Structure formats: structure tokens, C-alpha cells
Amino acid sequence: MPYDWPGLINLILLLIDGTKIALKVFFLTLIFSLPLGLVTALGRMYGNRLIKGLMKFYILIMRGTPLILQLSFVYFAPYFLLPEGLRINFDRFVAAIIACSLNYAAYFAEIFRGGIESISQGQYEAAAVLGFSKRQTFMRIVLPQVVKRILPPVSNEIITLVKDTALVSTLGIAELYRLATGEASRVVSPIPFLIAGMIYLLWNWVVTEILLKAEKKLAYYK
Amino acid sequence: MEILSVENLYKSFDDNEVLHGISFKVREGEVVAVIGPSGSGKSTLLRCLNLLEKVDRGTVKVAGDTMVSTNDLGQVLYPPEGALKKIRLRLGMVFQNFNLFPHFSVMRNITEAPVIVGGKSQEEAEKTALELLEKMGLSDKANAYPYQLSGGQSQRVAIARALAMDPDILFFDEPTSALDPELTGEVLKVIRKLAAEQMTMVVVTHEMAFAQEVADRVIFMDKGQIIEEGDPGEILTNPSHERTKAFIKGLSDR
Ligand SMILES: Nc1ncnc2c1ncn2[C@@H]1O[C@H](COP(=O)(O)OP(=O)(O)OP(=O)(O)O)[C@@H](O)[C@H]1O
Ligand SMILES: [Mg+2]
């Protein structure tokens, strides 16, 4: 047993630091990808032909290639694509947030689109004859109903995102998984993996509980 | 006074001409029943009149104000958005499938448009809503949600919702067709009550007995045209036109 009690506490403190970074990736990705997903869905549904095509292409790329590849691409692309003088040094954390947000926005966009398309034409017509503008109809009549319908699939994505934060380790970001790997090979012990696994599990348990609460809160109508 | 005047209305979907020169008028306080076989264009007519569809040709006036007109070049002209919205607010619509907003309580279904679109205060809108619910016999349902209502109750809420905007004319598209037979009565009763209060209404219906009893005038449509119109007793019991005869006979044979 390579860990004594002080060593174990130090390990946990270290992994908590990593968790904080993983949480940052998680929340920032959600904050950017949810609105971006909505805009993408609206562009995909109501845009002109060019916008529709662009959104479709974007969704295809993001869902059709590995996130881990997208992370590397966003990080390294400026270096290869920009001329020498203009080469910016992309912060790895910023690159990670951009890649994760773009990727999740594509998944959210398709979920939103499905949700919006599931609202019956009758709802739009009832709103129209009552004099609601298009915007009012969307914000007051359509969107609240969409939120309820898409909550289960969105919850799935959010739970996957908790685990996908581990992928940003490929850019050398010192988040939970990377720190656990480092410690495990340094001390030659599976304990860091075990603790990291427990942290991911606890994290997802909290996320699941919150999402279930939200679902319950929206259960007041059918 | 004329509340609605329709002249020479045409409407096609692709190459399917659904309305073929429809003209009729509705006076204030009048109840007009529109009958006719399936596919004759009754729903399409209502949808054109409440701006859910754009017409291809023709003129519609609401209480003297032009809602749509057609110039000499055959171009269809609708007034600018602001003016059109004012006209739209004078037209109420009740759908076959109610189309209540499921995420709003009955109260909010009725108050949302008066508050958001009509600019009424919340208290004022709720006061009106309670009065309307009482009239519909639904005073105890203000806080219910649509999924908790029967079809007949849903349709009465939908009628209250339309009335809350205080329209000049109310259109109904088969308001009882989605209901179980034992529930149609409660909806027809409400419409009867509105008729007694001189509410101007155009009702597309398959309920001939109801049309005969409540309507001041019946319009028979077939293949996108008005075949005949007139006194309900006359049209429903002693039609002059062959197609009307066949339609009425078909109904009584069922
Ligand atoms: N949005 C649409 N697109 C294409 N065709 C349509 C559309 N709406 C109606 N039609 C066609 O127009 C014709 C008339 O339809 P409409 O619904 O007005 O008839 P109706 O008299 O209301 O019939 P019913 O008694 O069955 O309700 C039908 O042939 C129908 O297929
Ligand atoms: Mg119809």
C-alpha cells in the first residue's frame, strides 16, 4: 500500500484541484453550447438556403468526427493555418472550451430541432389568431413546451459531458483525469483512478438529481 | 351594419383550386352556418378570413375596413403589418381541436393574449376571464390545466379565450367534431347563448339540427363555391339546388 494517510489526503486535495478545472470546462461548455445550439437549430430550420446548408454541414462535421480530434484541431489549427507573423499562441484552456462548446452545440441543436418540430401547427395557429407576434409565439408558447420535451435527451448529453471533460487532458490541461493518470504512474497504484472514478460518479449523481428535480418541476402539465 | 364582406375570393394550393369565387356578407349580430361536403373548402375559407392563409384573389372587409383587396393588375394587397394586426384582433377563432396552450392554466390561457397583445392589466384580464368562465359554466376550472379537462370543457375554454379579446366576429371550424356525442351538447349550448346575446358568428358545422335552430342563415358550399344560401328551414328541409338536395339526403341516410 503505497499511500499513508497524509499521502492519501494530499492525493485527494490534488484531485479536487483537478475537479475544479474539470467543473470549469463543464460549466463553460454548457453556458456556450446551449444558446449556440438553439441558434444553430433556428438557423437550420428557418434560415435561408445558405444558412440552412451551413448549419447542416457544421452539425455533420461536429457529430461525425471524434471530439478528441476536434480538440487537437482547434488547438493546433491556428498554428498551421495562419501566416508566420500572425500566429497566435492559443491558450489550451480556451481551445478546449471552444472545441467542446462547438461539439456539444451541434448535438443540442439537433435535440432542439426535434423539440421545436414536435410542437403542433395548431399551437402556432392559436397564437396567431390571438394576435401574438412570431417572437411572442416562440418565446411564450413554443419554447416553454420545447424545454419540457427535450429535458430527457438534454440530460443525457449533460451526463455525457461530465465524462467528456476528461478528453481535454489530451491538450495537457491538468484536470481530474490527467492528474489521476500522473499520480497513478508516479506512485504505481490504482488508487488515484479509483478516487477519480468516485469523483466522476458523485458529480454525475448530483447532476442527475438536479435534472430529475427539473423534470418534476415541469410535470405540472402534460 | 355589415361586419364581414367577402367578394370573389379565390384560393389554390398548387394547382388545386379550393375556393372558386366566394362572395357573402355577414351582418352584425347574425349567425351564419356553413355546411357542405368534406373537401368543399369550408376550413380553407375560414383560414383565409382569419389570415392563417393568404388569398390568391378577392376582397375582404371587416366592419368597413379593407383586410385584403385585389387591384386591376390582379395583385393581392394586404394592409401594412400594424393595420393588419388591428383587424386581426377583431376576428376570433375557435378550432376543431381546441388548441389550448397545455403549459398554461385555464386562467392564463384566457388572460395571456389580452395582457400581452391587448395591453390590458393583469387584474382587468382576470376579472374578464372569470366572468367568461362563469358564462361557460367553468368557474371551478380557472386553475386547472388543459390535460385535466374533458373535450367539451376544453372547447368551452377555447371559446372563452377567443371571447376575451372581445372580437367583432367569431369563427368556428366544426367546434364539436372532435367531441364525443354526449359532450357536443354543452358546447352547442354555449354557442346558443352567444347567439342570444347577438354575437356575430360564422360556424362551420355538420350539426344540421343545430344549424337549423341557431343560424339566421345557412350557406351551402360545394367544390369551392357557394351553391346556395338562405333561411335555414328553407335550405335544410326544402333545398332548391340538386347538389344541396343530394348532400342533405346523404346526411339523413346515414
Ligand atoms: N395546406 C394545404 N395544402 C394543400 N392542400 C390543402 C391544404 N389545406 C386544404 N387543402 C385542400 O383543400 C381542399 C379543401 O379542404 P378544406 O379543409 O378547406 O375542406 P373542408 O370543407 O373543411 O372539409 P372537411 O369537412 O373535411 O373539414 C381539400 O382538397 C384539401 O386537400
Ligand atoms: Mg374542415
Structure description:
The complex is a heterodimer of chains A (222) and B (254). Chain A contains eight helices and no strands. Chain A is 80% helix and 0% strand. With 222 residues, chain A is mostly helical. By secondary structure, chain B is of the alpha/beta class. Chain B has nine helices and eleven strands. Chain B has helices at residues 42-49, 81-88, 106-116, 122-135, 151-163, 181-196, 208-214, 232-237, 242-253; strands at 2-13, 16-27, 31-35, 57-62, 65-70, 76-77, 91-94, 169-173, 201-204, 217-222, 225-230. In chain B, the strands form two sheets. In chain B, strands 7-8-9-3-10-11 form a six-stranded mixed beta sheet, with helices on both faces. In chain B, strands 2-1-4-5-6 form a five-stranded antiparallel beta sheet, covered by helices on one side. In chain B, helix 5 packs parallel to helix 6 (181-196). The longest helix of chain B is centred in the C-terminal third of the chain and has 16 residues, at 181-196. Chain B is globular, with a radius of gyration of 18 Å. The relative contact order of chain B is 0.17. Chains A and B meet through helix 5 and helix 6 of A and strand 7 and helix 3 of B. The site of magnesium ion has 3 residues of chain B, from helix 1.
Question: Whole-Å distance between the termini of chain A?
Answer: 56 Å
Q: CATH first level of chain A: which class?
A: Mainly Alpha
Quaternary state of the chains: heterodimer
Strand portion of chain A: under 5%
Strand-pairing-aware structural class of chain B: alpha/beta
Strand content of chain B: 25-35%
Let me know the largest β-sheet of chain B: 6 strands, mixed
- The number of domains of chain A is 1
First CA to last CA of chain B: what distance?
39 Å
Q: Shape of chain B, please?
A: globular
| Inertia-based shape of chain A | flat
Mean pLDDT of chain B: 94
